[in-house]
Design a protein that fits this description.
By secondary structure, this protein is of the alpha/beta class. It is about 35% helix and about 20% strand.
């Protein structure tokens, strides 16, 4: 029997307020956290984002996430699709949900039960950095729940250059699995 739990959260960083939010876990050691994904490169931006997410998990007594190739393929494809087709949603323009996109990678095939979740977000300028994205997610109850969920042990990170609005910046998708 397959048990499926889907958690979906979205974020529009241009509208996120940081003023009264609690401080994020110390990002020392996550070199490049304040650099744009364009300057970090795809793998560098993913590495820094994972580092920041795992610092948050560690600060809350949760085991670290590990990058998964199939989840990363699903996340990268969705981030790129949102930029290319100018939309911001968990469901693609064709109607595919994030769990459907993850299933298409083969990630669920060998699992008797599984749980998946997704965080998406985008920002321009200083709001496009990995630190700004993780900070925004941690200041949102639904995103925070995905990041700190003990059910999730794997993650795929996709970061695309550009925004769903057609402007500059970066669009992020993180697909969680457990």
């Amino acid at each position: 029997m397959r048990r499926t739990r889907q958690l979906a959260c979205s974020s529009l960083l241009a509208l996120t307020a940081f003023g009264a939010a609690p401080a994020m876990a110390d990002a020392a050691g996550c070199s490049g956290a304040d650099r744009s994904p364009a300057k970090l490169g795809r793998s560098g931006a993913s590495r820094v984002t994972l580092c920041l997410l795992n610092r948050e998990r560690a600060a809350h007594g949760v085991r670290p996430l590990h990058l998964d190739g199939k989840l990363s393929r699903a996340a990268r494809g969705h981030a790129r699709d949102m930029v290319a087709k100018h939309y911001f949603a968990h469901d693609s323009r064709s109607g595919a949900s994030f769990s459907t996109r993850i299933k298409r990678t083969g990630w669920t095939r060998a699992r008797r039960s599984w749980t998946v979740g997704e965080n998406i977000g985008w920002g321009g300028g200083a709001l496009a950095t990995p630190r700004a994205m993780v900070r925004a997610w941690m200041n949102s109850a639904g995103h925070r729940a995905n990041i700190l969920s003990r059910s999730f042990r794997l993650i795929g990170i996709g970061i695309a250059k550009g925004a769903p609005t057609g402007g500059g910046g970066a669009t992020y998708a993180t697909d969680f699995g457990g």
